[in-house]
Structures are given as C-alpha cells and as structure tokens.
Amino acid sequence: MFEQFDFHVIINAMPILWDGMLITLLLAVVAIVGGIVIGTVLALMRLSRFTPFSLVAGSYVNFFRSMPLILVIFWFYFLVPMATGQALGGLSSVLIAFTLFEAAYYCEIIRAGIQSVTRNQINAGLAVGLSYPQTMRYIVLPQAFRNMVPVFLTQAIVLFQDTSLVYVVGLKDFLTAADLVAVRDNRVVELFITAAVVYLAICLAGSLWVKKLQRKYAL
Amino acid sequence: MHYNWDWEIIFCTSETEFLWLFAKNDCLQSYFYWIVTGFGWTIAVACASWVIAITVGSIVGVARTLDNRLLRGIASTYVELFRNIPLLVQMFLWFFVVPELLPQDAGTWVKRELPLPEFWTAVVCLGLYHAARVAEYLRAGMGSIPQGQTYAGYAIGLTQLQLYRYILLPVSYRIIVPPLTSDFMGIFKNSSVALTIGVLELTAQTRQIMEYTFNGFEAFTAATVLYLLVTFTVVTVMRVVERKVHIPGTITLEEK
Fold it and tell me: What residue ranges do the domains of chain A occupy?
C-alpha cells in the first residue's frame, strides 16, 4: 500500500508544482477581483427600478448559474480566439470565463448583502438630502460589504477549488502540473495525494479564518 | 466575427428528414444521437449520485448532532475533508489512486472486472462529495428546530431513535427543501467533471463533436439549451414540492 510511497518524486517535482500554483493563484485573484467588481455592478442593476437593467442582470445571473463551469470554459476557449480573430492563448480566455462566471455568483451575494440593509436607512439617507448614488455609496454599500465579508471568503475558497477545472483545456495550473509529473514519472499515487493535501491545507486554513471573521464582523 | 452556423451537421436532416434516430444511412451515428446519449449519461450520473448523497448525507448529518463525541468527530472530519478538496482532485483520487491503495484482490477487481468503471467511480465520487453538503444543510435544519420540541419529545416518552424518526428528521427535511434544490441542480452541473475520467456525458460529447467537425458552436449551443432545460425543470418541479411540504407559519432557510 504505502510501502512504495516515494517522497523524492515530490521533492523533485516541487519547481513544476510551484509554477502551477502561481497560475492557480493568478486565476483565483483575477477572478475574485473581477468577479466582485462586475458582480457589484450587476447587483446594483438587478436591484434598480429601471426594468431593462434588472431584467438583463437577472437573466445574466440565472444563465450563468445554470451552466456547468466546464462548459463555460469550453465556450470561451473556442469563442475568444474567434471573436478577436487571433490566438490569445488559453490563459486569457480562461481568465475571462472565470471572471464572468464568478460575477454571477458574487452578484447574488452582494444583492443579498444590500437587501440585508434595512429600507429605512435608504429613506433616512434620502431624507437628509443625499442623492440615490450617494446613499448607496456612503450608507448602504459600506454596511452591506461588512455583512458580506465572510460569505465573500467562502465563495473565494469555492472559486480557488474551481480553478482546478482549467485542467480540461490543458492550462498548466497546480493540478495539471501534478498530473503532468504523475504521467511522466508514472507516480500517480504520490502526486495526486500531494495535490489533495495542498488544496486541503489551503482551503482548511481559509475556512478557519472565515469562522474567525464571522465572529469578529457579527453586527 | 465570422462563423458559419450549420445545424445540418448536428441534425443530419439533409439525408434523412427527421428520422435521425432510426436512419438507414450514415446518420445512424448522427451527432444529434451523440448529444442524446450524452444527455442520458448526465441524467444517469446525477440521479445515481443524488441517491448516495441523500443517504450518506443524512447519516453524516445526524451523526453531527449526536452527543457521542467520537461519532461527531468522524462526521465533522468527513465534512471538512470532502468540502475542502476540489471535486476534480477527488475524481482523480477515486479513479487513479484508490484502486492502487486497496488490497491486491479488491484493487484488481476494481481495475479489471467492475462494469462501467468510469460511470461508477464518478457516481461514488459525486455522491460522497455532495453528501458532505447535504449533511451540512441537514445539521443546519435540525439546529433551527427549537430545543423545546426535543424536550417535548422526551417528555412524552420517546426514545432518541423515535425522536429523530418522528420529530427532528421529518421537520428538518421539510425545512431544507430549498437548499437541497440548489444542490440537486449543482449535481447536474458537477456531473460534467466526470468527463475528465472518461464518462461520455453531455459536455464530453459536445467537446467530441467540436473536435470531429470544427462546428462546435452548434453543439455548445445544444448543450447550453439542455442544461438550461434541466435547471428550469428542476426549479419548476421543486417549487411545487416546496409549496406542498412547506410547514405553515415558518420561514424557510435561505439557500446557504
């Protein structure tokens, strides 16, 4: 069983795995930041009284939430080069796919956060003479974001795990790097267990941090 | 952007006029047929996994609420383990690593004699992955039942087993219908991960059509429509179920 477990294989694979981890982190960070920015815009559109805005944002969110991420990755992997007319490489199309996909999920989180701020506060803001954008900017959003910090991080952990799916288009993230070494050295057991342990450690640390924040940010 | 849409490649209508499924010529293997079988596998994987997810998830969820510290510890470890490793890594572990680590005979059996190895591996993997989520919902559901009901149950002389069977479980299942609905849709979406170990489900067939014909967008569109259809069906059906089982006078748990 574990008699033949060879740690040298893992030590030798370190540099390749590290390069993969950098790609994974890049994907996660870009998708989180992009997702939050686009998600905020979508959430404001979705809550807007102007029907076309809320309709567009609503359809966008429902559409992406019923798609498997792998299918979205495929769509953009083949669509982006065709739309731009030149090969941009896998990384940029995957970055676009992740950002747009995660934006739908972040939109829902932000919408719930905004709706958790009571209606009276908006009325109060308008009553003291702030405009609607000012009320959003100075009263609603700061409170909403504070409520949302733990959920944001939980979603970030989910997203971090989802980045492993870029394996399907062969982008060299952490898991794909592990897979390449596993096949090259014929050491499947060592490499996949290492990959699992690394993901587990990072995500577990993340969820413990979330629990701590939840206590700290509770209003 | 220049793309020549050509739906005939998928439907093969030029030769067979709507008889694509039973056609006598080459169209027997029309790409439409690939999409249909792929869709079938997607449904098969999702539904079979869901059975495992509900069964194992219920056991783990109940174990997390028991007084026995050992059982509770095992159940929490299970949930943390399965929630913090990416699904794709779990898929690889079940498919490539577990058969190597099993005792020799069992390993050989899994590798050589298990019928439909990719399918069953995917089902077990997805089922156990979602079981961790179901367990969390169930625990949250039971946590939302007021303590008074437990005391009332014990006061009228129920045993712990009866308490779970007649009071806690029926109520919490009814409370957690909405999050279970979104998880059921999640299992359909996650079933696409099975393509990495060779299950020819909807997304896999779509990719294959892309590689064979270079007219991938028709196939992608068809798959997109089918996934939307699944979501729509699940949402519609579950809305009826939700209304049927809703406990009057309660507010349901929001999803996650």
Answer: 7-217
Q: Report CA-CA distances (Å) from B186 to A96, A214, B173, B192.
A: 22, 26, 18, 10
- The answer to whether residue A139 neighbours chain B at the CB level (below 8 Å) is no
Q: Is A95 on the interface with B (CB under 8 A)?
A: no
- The complex scores an ipTM of 0.86
Low-confidence ranges of chain B (pLDDT < 70): 1-2, 8-29, 249-256
List chain B domain ranges: 30-245
Q: Which CATH superfamily is domain A7-217 in?
A: MetI-like (1.10.3720.10)
Decide if A78 and B220 are in contact by the 8 Å CB cutoff.
Answer: yes
Q: Is the CB of B195 less than 8 angstroms away from the CB of A188?
A: no
Query: Which CATH entry fits the domain spanning B30-245: 1.10.3720.10, 1.20.1250.20, 3.30.420.10, 1.25.40.390?
Result: 1.10.3720.10
In angstroms, the separation between the Cα of residue A90 and the nearest Cα of chain B is: 16
- A75 vs B: CB within 8 A: yes
Q: Please state, in angstroms and rounded to a whole number, the distance separating the CA atoms of residues A141 and A43.
A: 11
- CA dihedral over B25, B26, B28, B30, signed as positive or negative: negative
CB A146 within 8 A of CB A217: yes
Q: Please, are residues B215 and B161 in contact by the beta-carbon 8 Å criterion?
A: no
Q: Are A199 and B86 a contacting pair at CB < 8 A? A: yes
Query: Tens digit of pLDDT for each residue in A52-82?
Result: 898 999 999 999 999 999 999 988 888 777 7
pLDDT band at A85 (very low <50, low <70, confident <90, very high): confident
A153 interfacial to chain B (CB closer than 8 Å): no
Residue B199, both tokens: 């299950």
Contacts with B220 from chain A: Cβ below 8 Å:
71, 74-75, 78
Q: How far is A131 from chain B (nearest CA, A)?
A: 32
Q: Do A193 and B224 touch (CB under 8 A)?
A: no
| CA nearest neighbour of B201 among B13, B49, B18 | B49
Angle A124-A129-A133 from CA coordinates, rounded to 5°: 85
Of B20, B1, B22, the residue nearest B9 (C-alpha): B20
Residue B212 distance to chain A (closest CA, Å): 14
For chain A, counts of helices (H) and of strands (E): 9, 0
Other C-beta atoms within 10 Å of A83: how many?
A: 13
* pLDDT per residue as tens digits for the range B64-74: 988 889 999 99
pLDDT tens digits, one per residue of A146-188: 888 888 888 999 999 999 999 988 888 899 888 888 888 888 8
Two tokens at B1? Answer: 């952007």
| Cα A209 to Cα A153: distance, rounded to the nearest angstrom | 9
